[in-house]
Specification:
By secondary structure, this protein is mainly alpha-helical. Helix content is 86%, strand content 0%. The two termini are 54 Å apart.
């Protein structure tokens, strides 16, 4: 489907470019002006919409008690800091080299067996149970 879409875009672009070059200069200028007018209209509409939305938000914030807003912002900020600390702790303190070495060792042992079964099964549940009991 992506090839058909790409071919359609190319053919449509080529047809548009050909039609544009075949138009008289006055017609091209009229189309440019019409397009500029529509873009200006849509820009005005979007600006009015955004300004209306900002007015509504300002009214809602004025109705709320500032301490409530500050408390909710502080709570959200603290949650984000806690999550950031958790991710950084996980990435810096977990020993990925030992885990990778253990997996490589198990895979090497599985390959050295004269087993006709070619499936590799990695079972993390048994490792999790042993590490929990070791702690």
């Amino acid at each position: 489907m992506s090839k058909k879409l790409f071919a359609g875009i190319l053919l449509g672009g080529a047809a548009t470019a050909t039609a544009w070059t075949l138009l008289p200069a006055k017609k091209r200028q009229a189309l440019r002006e019409q397009l500029n007018d529509r873009v200006a209209d849509w820009t005005d509409y979007a600006t009015d919409y955004v300004l209306t939305a900002l007015d509504i938000v300002d009214e809602r914030l004025a109705e709320m008690d500032n301490s409530e807003v500050a408390a909710s912002v502080k709570t959200a900020t603290q949650k984000m800091k806690d999550k950031k600390d958790q991710v950084i702790d996980h990435l810096t303190n977990d020993d990925f080299d030992k885990q990778t070495a253990a997996i490589r060792e198990k895979l090497a042992q599985a390959g050295s067996n004269e087993d006709t079964d070619d499936d590799i099964i990695i079972d993390a549940t048994s490792d999790d149970q042993t590490t929990k009991t070791e702690k």
